[in-house]
Amino acid sequence: MRALVQRVTEARVEVAGEIIGRCGPGLLILVCAMQGDTETEAAALAAKIHKLRIFRDAAGKMNLALKDTGGAALVVSQFTLAADTRSGNRPGFSTAAAPELGERLYQHFAQSLRGLGVAVETGQFGADMAVHLVNDGPVTIWLDTAA
Questions:
Q1: How far apart are CA 114 and CA 94, in angstroms?
Q2: Based on the structure, what is the number of domains in the chain?
Q3: Residues designated catalytic
């Protein structure tokens, strides 16, 4: 699985102008299931992000994790993280998981984070969404379970 993790002071996601998910200080996590991924990768990615030390400690150093800060997460599905741009000018997305599997793993990822004690809200899988965020830092981290 792939994730783009952004440390935020706030984030929200809208569908058709209606807010369907939001979080205060914490993480906006854009997630994409790839072909061959299973619940094992989804849970491992959630555990990694839960322990990722990208929040400031008292000295201002990135030394705290989401688990240490009590921050929340907004999890949004984004199949375009599977973009292959090696040839031509139009990205290919053939390495993304099929929609049924992608949705199942997306939901499993969010549930795995909840199981670790994180307050999680989500976007709507497959919907045309507008994501609003205030990136804190800015801090943006790319994670891939295949790497």
A1: 30
A2: 1
A3: 78-80
Q: How far apart are CA 104 and CA 125, in angstroms?
A: 10
Residue range(s) defining the domain that contains residue 8: 2-144
Q: In this structure, what CATH number is given to the domain that contains residue 117?
A: 3.50.80.10
Going by C-alpha positions, the residue among 95, 92, 85, 79 that lies closest to residue 128 is: 79
pLDDT mean by block of 10 residues, the chain; 147 residues? 98 98 98 97 98 97 96 97 94 96 98 98 97 97 90
Q: Which residues contact 141 (CB under 8 A, 6 or more apart)?
A: 4, 5, 6, 52, 54
CA angle 26, 102, 53 (to 5 degrees): 25
